[in-house]
Write a structure and sequence with these properties.
The protein is an all-alpha fold. It has 6 helices and no strands. The chain has 2 domains: 58 residues, no CATH class; 29 residues, no CATH class.
Amino acid sequence: MLKLSPCEKRSLVKASIFSLQDQAIVTRQHERDVLKRAVDGKCRLCGVKDETAQHIVAGCEQLAGTYYTRRHNNVVQYVYWTLLKKTQLRNNQLMVERTTH
């Protein structure tokens, strides 16, 4: 297994994010329409819609109940802890406020 340094991992993640934003990742639809390969363009997971970057990130029914929810919860948790740190509140202060309203 290839060992990557933290810096290399961050670079790889950034490159992947930029590729997704530019829709420049190789999906089945990309292989079929752009690379002109004889492949079925349907999603490997759901098999219903064309496998595009947009479909993988936000439209695949197979990922809707698990991955998207987990991703959403991770973002909410990050926002929560960032706001908590920024406003310098403590957990017990929030609990008191939550129970008194």
